[in-house]
Amino acid sequence: EMANILSRQYSSVFSKPSPPKNQTITDDVDDDTLPTLSDITFTEKDIIDAIDELKNNSASGPDGLAAIFLKKCKLAIAKPLYHLWRDCLDKGITPSKLKEAHIIPIHKGGHHGVAANYRPIALTSHLIKIFEKVIRNKLVGFLQENNLLNGSQHGFTAGRSCLSQLLDHHNKILNLLEDG
Fold first, then answer.
1. Which residues contact 104 (CB under 8 A, 6 or more apart)?
2. Higher-confidence position of 160 and 48
3. How far is CA 100 from CA 63, 79, 151, 170, in A?
4. pTM for this structure?
5. Which of 32, 94, 152, 155 has the fewest beta carbons under 10 Å from its own?
6. Strand 101-107 vs strand 118-124: parallel, antiparallel, or unpaired?
7. Is 71:57 a contact under the CB 8 Å cutoff?
8. Nearest 5°: CA angle at 18, between 102 and 108?
């Protein structure tokens, strides 16, 4: 019954993303000159590096594979994982089992008997997390190398965070106040 209560709570606050609006490239941007990314290339080393980024004590997902197990076996599993993820990327598919998650309620404060006082945490397979890290690193690298990120981009950017965004915003406000 508790699972049903939490499921109703989480469903009630979930909002579906709105469909993208028709967006056009502004007149001052020539889309023929923009660099394109036709494929994402990665290596077994990229997979090993992504495995190294896993925290030893992070909870495993539905597949039950522990991070520490993957870290200790990384040299033996890098090649098979490379072939799995290369094939998935080439075909544009991801095994449905690796998309599954266990939803764990985490108490955020207040009365323990109120479902709204719990936030859902999705525990996914470390295997999919490894692939996400590899792809993310390659995409962000491409964007940075080609100067395609806006200067005010702080999220998902190395050396930047919500705090750096707030400090930047605060600094802009102070400068505007000083300028009258």
1. 59, 120, 121, 122, 123
2. 48
3. 9, 23, 36, 41
4. 0.72
5. 32
6. antiparallel
7. no
8. 40
The full DSSP string for 110-175 is: S-TT-GGGEEEEEEE-HHHHHHHHHHHHHHHHHHHHTT-S-TT--TT-TT--HHHHHHHHHHHHHH
High-pLDDT (> 90) share of the chain, %: 58
Three-class DSSP category at 68: helix
Cα–Cα distance for residue pair 8/120, rounded to 1 Å: 12
Q: Angle 153-158-121 (CA atoms, 0-180°, nearest 5)?
A: 90
Residue 118: what pLDDT? 92
Neighbours of 144 (CB within 10 A): 13
Backbone angles phi, psi at 144, to 5 degrees: -70, -45
Residue 156 in contact with residue 140, Cβ under 8 Å? yes
State how far the Cα of 113 lies from the Cα of 1, in Å rounded to an integer.
Answer: 13
pLDDT in tens, 3-60: 888 888 888 877 776 666 665 545 455 567 788 888 999 999 999 999 999 999 999 9
DSSP H or E stretch at residue 103: strand 101-107
Residue positions counted in the chain:
180
Q: How confident is the model over 89-103, as pLDDT tens digits?
A: 999 999 999 999 999
How far apart are the C-alpha atoms of 84 and 44, rounded to whole Å?
11
